[in-house]
Structure formats: C-alpha cells, structure tokens
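Sequence and structure are kept together here, with a separate record for every protein. A complete record is shown below as an example:
=====
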Amino acid sequence: MSNNKMKLEFLAKSENEGFARVTVAAFVSQLDPTIDEIEDVKTAVSEAVTNAIIHGYEGREDGIIQITASINDNEFTVEIMDKGIGISDIEKAREPLYTSRPDLERSGMGFTIMESFMDNMKVESEYKNGTKVTMKKIFSSLKQ
C-alpha cells in the first residue's frame, strides 16, 4: 500500500460536521475498510469536529477547523485542530460524563467515544491557543 495525505479546512459551523465526516471516510476508503471500520472513523471524526465547534469555539462560526489525514501502509492517522479557547485540564475533560457545557445538555462522552472507536488517541491543548486531537486506526483488511 502506498502512503497518502490530505488536508481540509472549513468554518466551525455545525453543518460542516457531516462534510468533514464524509470527506475523511472517502479518503480512508482506499484502505478497503469494512463497513464497521468506516463507521468507527466517521463517528470519531464527528465527535472531534463537534467538540471543536461547541467547546473550542463556543459556537462562534468564524473559527477554522483543520483536518489532516495520512495513510502509511495499513495505519490511518487523522488530526483535528482548532485555534479556539483550548482545554485547561485535559485529564478532567477526558473523564466519561464530564462536560464543560452542561447548559447545552452535552453527554460528556466525546473523548470516550473517540477512544473506543479508534486504536489510539492523543489530545494536546493550550489554553486560549487551541486543541489538537490525533487519532490512529489500523485497518484489519491489511493486518497480517
């Protein structure tokens, strides 16, 4: 399998979440994923983009979300980045059911969902300077 890369930028509008999800799914399709694998990626990307919109930019639609994705052999890596308010306590934010926006009836399961659907997840954030979520998945169709 050859290596490949893509980059995507869009405004932090909730209607762009579906666009991001479908675009990443189309990119990863070259790995010949199973239906379950492609749904895992789409769900994880949806959660990360939604977090950036709701928490990173607090609903402001003028922010930019950037996605970069790469394929190296059977490993898929996707990074979702924003330049929003950042996360002051990443460990607390990763706790199941924790939400910084209970006023919006958020479930607080975003990071938990991302972790459960991908093989690896890393969160980097700097207060008032944005967040980057990096997720990796190994595709079984190419596993040895």
In short: The chain has a mean pLDDT of 87.
